[in-house]
Amino acid sequence: MGSFDVEKILQQMTLEEKAQMCSGRDFWRTQDVERLGIPKVMMCDGPNGLRKQIGGSDALGINESIETVCYPTASAVAASFDTELLRELGEILGEECQAEHVGMLLGPGINMKRSPLCGRNFEYYSEDPYLAGKLGASYIKGLQGKGVAACVKHVACNNQETRRLSGSSWVDERTLREIYLPAFEMAVKEGGVRSVMNAYNAINGTFCAENKRLLTDILREEWGYQGFVVTDWGAVKDRVTGLEAGVDLEMPGSMTGKTEAIMEAVEEGSLSMETLNQAVRNVLTFVKESIDNQRETAVFDREQAHVKSGVFEKECAVLLKNDGILPLSKRKKIAFIGAFAESPRYQGTGSSHINVRHAVSALECLDGWEAVYAKGYDADQEDADEELLRQAAEIAKNAEAAVIFAGLPEAYETEGCDRDTMKMPARMR
């Protein structure tokens, strides 16, 4: 878009327009200014599928989104140790974003897994910063190679969901540098990521949305980051302090009083026009790049992508131990036990939750095998169902081999809260 001159537009903007540009237009889009030819750009959740909402907007995956393809979660793809797989996944999602006119996909999530109780572990790659950084950089290069910005999240030390809006991660310098920051540094230096999302939490008492050392001193000055910084949805405490710290764009939009607070700070002299201009410049650069890279005629084959997701899943599967039981013989009488054999769990809940047309179950994949099925439990109930258990035990007793389908229900792997125990749910024990 040759006519979109960032510096020229910046000079023509009023103080109010500049202040407005530092917040979103609505829940998913940047601010537009019609008189200056500044278009709005849409961003959507990811990274294991495109969550483009079509009705009411929310950050927890509650309202309806488009029907599309769900790919293996970050916890699964990391088990592949395959950077090429991550690059290809990024490319596929980039093609879909182009077809859906989405300029930025929120991901990858590369926070460290520091506790197995974290409700959002399924969205993160690893407890190993090197592995997380390498996989994240490959995903970023694949996605951005298709002209769609990646947004690496959540900087930094965001390792629990309980009290994530108010908690502080207390960490010494060596631990910060050796564990929590390396993956993000790789995303910047190797991946060339165009957007960084700050976390909700504080680090050593200073919230990430107001942390100048994190977002300016380290991110921009040490690592040479050239993109823009966006808040996690609702992470801002003090917008003016955030601007001074290095936060360019606050999301979501329609936050009352924020535009006025920025304008007042500039007029009073407590916020420099230079600081405001730099934030607006960073957002406008993102808008320009998104428009320049947009392919209006892009199309996306979801059926082909669905098949590819199955290929990815095979590469991610991990067999912990086989002492001769596998492979099972088709001649054996086999029992499939557990509700997940009929209704599989393949993703967590929250902002990454993908709306799929159909999830293929294990029962649908028998392909000539003869197996009897017992539900065994109700995944939506907390307590065990004695009759379902009795039926499962009876079927297992009469089978030559039993395949158990058990795991954690949605409430145990979700954004916004952590588990309080490592035990399996009572209904599955």
Describe the 3D structure.
It is a single chain. With 429 residues, the protein is of the alpha/beta class. It is 34% helix and 10% strand. The protein has 13 helices and 13 strands. The radius of gyration is 24 Å and the shape is elongated. It starts with 5 loop residues before the first helix and ends in a 25-residue tail after the last strand. The model has no long low-confidence stretch (mean pLDDT 93).
Q: Which structural class best describes the helix and strand composition?
A: alpha/beta
The ordered H/E elements are HHEEHHEHEEHHEEEHEHHHHEEEHE
Q: Can you tell me the overall shape?
A: elongated
Rg measurement, Å: 24 Å
Write down how many β-strands occur, each being a DSSP E stretch of 2 or more residues: 13
- Structure annotation, total helices: 13
Unreliable segments of 5+ consecutive residues: none
Query: Level of helix content?
Result: 25-40%
Proportion of beta-strand residues:
5-15%
The termini sit apart by: 60 Å
The largest sheet has its strands arranged as 1-3-4-6-9
Mean pLDDT comes to 93
Q: Describe the biggest sheet?
A: 5 strands, parallel
